[in-house]
């Protein structure tokens, strides 16, 4: 399934590239105001930090929320104390878009993450051109040499890679890249199964000084507590925030952990 998601995102990017060339996009990307410092925003503190996600749907959960105005939701996330806003830009299964990211960028002053299935340089330029400050890189999706190339490009554009892992082996590969921001996704992107204990099992493999993000499987404050006890500096939360009805108070409760 991960392979299909990546193939779909690459095909959609190829379509866009037939309308806007690599060099034209590069000019746009380089003309943006510099990316915000996401590592500073996520620097560990004495409470949990939250990456709050704009998420309409997912292949495992189906439709979650229609989110007609992603910018309004993102403004609530900022008001609730989120450190970063994550915007799903995958169109086919997550019903997101780069337009969502651009709208969110205009509405908030905290860093914004492009969450998609990234496999090519063109997609990284797109992220920067749309105003992204961080880009997700999924270790399981790519061979190490491609990860190295894309990781370096994200850094060169002044952005921060969030390197996503699903096992101790993948954490080792993320560390080899020099990742300063490592995510552990409880949801396996091939089987879609949740493994709530995964973060706790692999957190020790992430070196001191690297920011540890627990991704997925937060449905309530007790899940945030569990991740905190296991050593998470931040949690990435989608479903609970888009379906809960009151994202500001939900966020405040998570930030008290
Ligand atoms: O909605 P949840 O269970 O709170 O999960 C958020 C986030 O972790 C999830 O959307 C995610 C993590 N990694 C991804 C990679 C691609 C797409 C989506 C994701």
- In the CATH hierarchy, the architecture is Alpha-Beta Barrel
* Ions and ligands: indole-3-glycerol phosphate
**How large is the count of helical segments?**
12
Helical residues, percent: 40-55%
Task: Give the count of structural domains.
Answer: 1
Query: What structural class do helix, strand and pairing data support?
Result: alpha/beta
Strand content: 15-25%
**CATH homolog superfamily:** Aldolase class I
Low-confidence stretches: none
The shape, in one word, is: globular
CATH topology: TIM Barrel
Task: Please tell me how large the radius of gyration is.
Answer: 17 Å
The description of the largest β-sheet is: 8 strands, parallel, barrel
With strands numbered from the N-terminus, the spatial order across the biggest sheet is 1-4-5-6-7-8-9-10
Return the CATH class.
Answer: Alpha Beta
The sequence of SSEs as H and E is HHHEEEHEHEHEHEHEHEHEHH
Number of strands: 10
């Amino acid at each position: 399934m991960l392979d299909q998601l990546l193939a779909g995102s690459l095909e959609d990017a190829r379509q866009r590239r037939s309308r806007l060339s690599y060099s034209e996009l590069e000019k746009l990307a380089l003309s943006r105001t510099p990316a915000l410092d996401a590592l500073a925003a996520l620097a560990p503190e004495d409470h949990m930090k939250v990456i709050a996600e704009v998420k309409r749907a997912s292949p495992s959960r189906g439709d979650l929320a229609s989110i007609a105005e992603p910018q309004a939701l993102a403004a609530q996330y900022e008001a609730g104390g989120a450190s970063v806003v994550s915007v799903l830009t995958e169109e086919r299964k997550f019903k997101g878009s780069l337009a969502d990211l651009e709208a969110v960028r205009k509405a908030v002053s905290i860093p914004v993450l492009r969450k998609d299935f990234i496999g090519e340089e063109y997609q990284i330029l797109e992220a920067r051109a749309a105003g992204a400050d961080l880009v997700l890189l999924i270790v399981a999706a790519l061979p190490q040499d491609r990860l190295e190339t894309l990781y370096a490009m994200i850094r060169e554009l002044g952005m921060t890679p969030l390197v996503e892992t699903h096992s101790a082996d993948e954490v080792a590969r993320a560390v080899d890249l020099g990742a300063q921001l490592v995510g552990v996704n409880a949801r396996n992107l091939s089987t879609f199964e949740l493994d709530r204990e995964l973060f706790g099992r692999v957190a020790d493999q992430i070196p001191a000084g690297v920011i540890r993000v627990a991704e997925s499987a937060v449905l309530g404050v007790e899940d945030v507590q569990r991740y905190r006890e296991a050593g998470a500096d931040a949690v990435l939360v989608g479903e609970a925030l888009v379906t809960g009805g009151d994202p500001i108070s939900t966020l405040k409760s998570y930030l008290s952990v």
